[in-house]
Amino acid sequence: TFPVLSQGFEIETEMTIHAVYNHMQLENVIVDYRDRPQGSVSKLNTFSDGFKVLKTILRLFKNYKPMAFFSMIAAVLLALAIGFFIPVFIRFLETHLVLQIPTLVVCGFATLAALQSFFAGLILSNMSEKNRRDFEYELNHTVQDYKRKEQEN
Questions:
Q1: How many other C-beta atoms lie within 10 A of the C-beta of residue 61?
Q2: How many CA atoms lie within 13 A of 121 on its CB side?
Q3: Residue 152 burial (CB < 10 Å; 0-12/13-18/19+)?
Q4: Residue 33 C-alpha from the chain's centroid
Q5: Residues 108-145 as b or e (16 or more Cβ within 10 Å = b)
Q6: How many CB atoms lie within 10 A of CB 28?
C-alpha cells in the first residue's frame, strides 16, 4: 500500500523514513556479496547519487514534518526581516525620518512571508497528523481482518 515515488537509491531512503515514521518493524537482511566481475564498470556516481538522496531526505522532511520545515523557513525570513529593519529603525530614532523606504517595504513583506510560512506549516502539520491517524486505523483494521481470517482457517 506504500506509494514509492522515488527511483534509484532514493527508494531505500523513502521506504526507511516511511517505516520509521509509522513505527514499523525494520529488519536487516544479510545478503552474500561478491566482487564485481572483471571488466565491468560501476554505474554509481558518489556525488550525484548522494545529492539525489539528500534531496529526497529534504523532500520527505517537508512531507513528514511540515511544521518543523516551514518553521525553519519562517525563522530565517523573520531573522532577515529583523536584521534589515534594525538599521532603518535606528536611523528613524535618530532623524525621525524613514530614509530607506524600499528596505522597510521588503522587511514588511519578508515578515508577512514568515507568518504565511508558519501558518502553512500548522495547516500541513494537521493534515499530516490526520493522514497518519488514517494510516494507523487502516493498518489496525487490516491486521484485525488478517487475524480473523487466520482463525477461520
A1: 14
A2: 19
A3: exposed
A4: 33
A5: eebbebbeebbebbeebbeebeeeeeeeeeeeeeeeee
A6: 4
Question: C-alpha grid cell for residue 91?
Answer: 536611523
Q: What type of residue sits at position 27?
A: E
Instruction: Write down the pLDDT at residue 62.
Output: 92
Give pLDDT < 50 ranges for the chain.
none
Residues 6+ apart with CB under 8 A from 57: 13, 17
Q: What is the grid cell recorded at 117? A: 510560512
Nearest Cα to Cα of residue 59 among 87, 118, 17, 103: 17
Which amino acid, 94?
A: E
The per-residue pLDDT for 86 is: 96
Grid cell locating 146: 488478517
State the Cα–Cα distance between residues 11 and 80, nearest whole angstrom. 36
